[in-house]
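Box 4.2: Ligand-aware structure prediction
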Amino acid sequence: MPDILITENIIGPAMDALRQRFDCAFEPDLWQQPDRLFALIPEFRALIVRNQTQVTRELVAAGAKLEIIGRAGVGLDNVDLGAASDHGTVVGFAPEQTTNSVAELALGLMLALARMIPAADRDTRQGNWNRHRFTGTEILGKTLGVVGFGRIGVSTATKARALGMDIVAYDPFVDPDGLNVMNLRARLGSLDEALAQADFVSCHLPLTNETRNLFDYDRFGQMKRSAYFINTSRGGVVNEDGLIRALREGLIAGAALDVRAQEPPAASALAEMDNVVMMPHVAAFTREAQARVVATVCRDVAAVLNGEAARNYANFSRPKK
Ligand code: NAD
C-alpha cells in the first residue's frame, strides 16, 4: 500500500531517509495538476506539501486514508485546517524552522531600501558613478513598525533592536505585558499608531479573511511619506493596485516585496520602479532553514505513520480517524 504522496519539490537528506523507510510517490509538479492529485489522493496515508498545493476541503475529503498532511513551512493558508480536523487528519508543520531566515531577509530588505542597494547596483553596472544620487538613510535610531508580532515579527524586531532601532508593534492578540514586548521595549498600539510612527513597516501577518488586502491605498496613506514598507508574509495582505498608486503619488518612499498576490506575478508597474525591491518568495529559502523544515516534517510524518505523536502540529498530534 502506498504511504506518502509528495506534491512539491521537497528534497534533502531527511527526505531521502523517509523515502527509504516508506513507499513514497515523489511528484514535484503534481500541485499543478489538481485532477491527477484528486485521482491519486485516496490511496495515501500521508501528504507532504509546500505552499503551492491547494489542500482544500474537497481534497481532504477525497483522502479517505489520510492520517497526516505535512506542510513543509509555516503558513497554513493553502491548507483547510478545519477540514483536516473534521476528517481526523493531523496537520503537521514547521512553525519555527524558517523564522530566523525570514527575519534576516526582512532586515536585508530594510537595508536594501534604506541604502538603495539594488538600484545603485543596476546603475553602477551600466558604467555610472552616481554617488550623490544614492545618498541613503540610516536605520540607527529609526522606528520599525512590526505588523503581526508573532515568531517572525519578534525575531525581526530583536535583530532591528540590536541595530539601534525603536520598535512599535501592532498585534491585537499579543499580551501588552508579555515578555517579548518588555524585552524589546516595544510600544504595542493600534495599527493607526504603528503606521503613523514607523520609518519602516515590516509585515508579518498570516493571510486570513481579516488580513486580506489590509494594506491598501488608504493604509499606505497613513504612513510617513519618508517610510518604507517591507512584506515577507503573504502577498494577499497587500492590495497591489493601492501600493502602486501610493508609490506613484509619493505617499511612501519605497517598498520591498518577497511575496505577491499572484505567484508568479503578472507584469506589473512595480517592476519599473527604482524604489521597489522584489524577490521571488524566497524568505525561507536558505540551506539552513530548508534542512530544518524538511527534517521536521519528515520526522512528524514518519511518527504518525508509525502510530506515534507528531511534535509540531496545528490541530492534534495523532489522527482521530
Ligand atoms: P505567527 O503565528 O507566529 O505570527 C503571526 C502573528 O500575527 C500572531 O502573533 C497573530 O496574533 C498575528 N495576527 C493574526 N491575525 C492578525 C490580525 N488580523 N491583525 C493583527 N495581527 C494578527 O506566525 P509567523 O511564524 O510569525 O509567520 C507569519 C507569517 O509569515 C506566516 O503566516 C506566513 O504566511 C509568512 N511566512 C512567509 C515566508 C516566506 O517565505 N516569505 C516564510 C515563513 C512564513
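In the box above, the bound molecule is nicotinamide-adenine-dinucleotide. The pocket of nicotinamide-adenine-dinucleotide is lined by residues 73-75, 95, 98-99, 102, 148-153, 171-174, 204-208, 210-211, 232-234, 258-259, 281, 283-284 (CB under 6 Å).
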